[in-house]
Amino acid sequence: MRILFLTDNFPPEVNAPASRTFEHCREWVKAGHQVTVITGAPNFPTGKVFPGYRNRLWQRETLDGIQVVRVWTYITANTEVAKRTLDFLSFMVFGFLAGLVQRRPDVIIGTSPQFFTNCAAWMLSVFRWRPFIFELRDLWPESIKTVGAMRDSVALRLMERLERFLYRRSAAVVAVTESFRRNLIARGINGDKIVVITNGVDLSRFQPMPRDPELAEQLGLTGKFVAGYIGTHGMAHALETLLEAAQRMAALPAGPEVHFVLLGDGARKSALKATAERMGLKNVLFLDTVPKAEVPRYWSLLDVSIIHLRKSDNFTQVIPSKLFECMGMGIPVLHGVAGESADIVEREDIGLVFEPENVEDLCDGLLRLAGDQVRYQQLRANALAAAPRYNRITLAQKMLRILENIHANRPSR
Question: What does pTM read for this prediction?
Fold first, then answer.
């Protein structure tokens, strides 16, 4: 089977969409299928092209057997809605054109969060007479309204109508949460075509490992209790909550010496660093994004992983992918996201849930985990036991069965 996959993000980018797409495609190649990915030059989230790449009209490479076609896009940092929209539209146009000259695929996949990629995938399905699968990783444009990046307007309502059109035109919708599935059904999308395949973890990369002594020494973390956030520093993440918690923890007259590590990049990083400096925080360390192969080494520094999104009904429907990486590494979590992902944390008993944007709640959780080694080790063991249930290989195989079924039942021409 020939699979054509359109995605805005792909390695060497290290965000969740890039990892999910790569790990799924890698498994499909191992199963004997031909996979072509159309993407852009790697630049997320800074808007700067990664070393070794150029923003060319067309370039090809092969990664783990995956044929990768990179097209020109209007590149910008993830800060302004208008410029980011130009980025999305440019990928839609050039991704579509690139798809026209590929060998005719058997199935075509487009992935969100922004749906312009799925516009290109749907148009290709029309021109190439092949089924189109919508992979739903975020309810966009609902999510941009949630973070205040765009207000309700005629343009937003038109985008919502286009979003529903694409759901209806797809042969299947592969959603990453049950909440997304329920949301679409409530909006009139046929539930029979919606399949849930959660995010997961590549257990060949994310495994329990002792704290890297050289890295800990280099960063001044030896002997300290380290609470970390690894991921995008964006508008949705409300990481000011972590800075306020760091300030409170530093002011405690006695107790554990807790240091905070924030690794990653994003639209809010510069502002967060300025705020930390203004607050005089000596127990907060900001680190830039590291290469994909280095990420587990930095995870090893953490005693506790903090997962956080701003308090919003929309975010109760998401499951941050870093939750599964924590399981693989055996790192207990402090989970500041309400809803479906919090249910997983409590069901698997792999950490403590706190109210989003509640500094006192977060500090209480830190003190509990730093001060109770019996409970801490229990959570760690539970995380390692839960990880195989979210093995990326199993999830990729589940999605492959969906693609094979759609291919087998497509109308002939």
Answer: 0.86
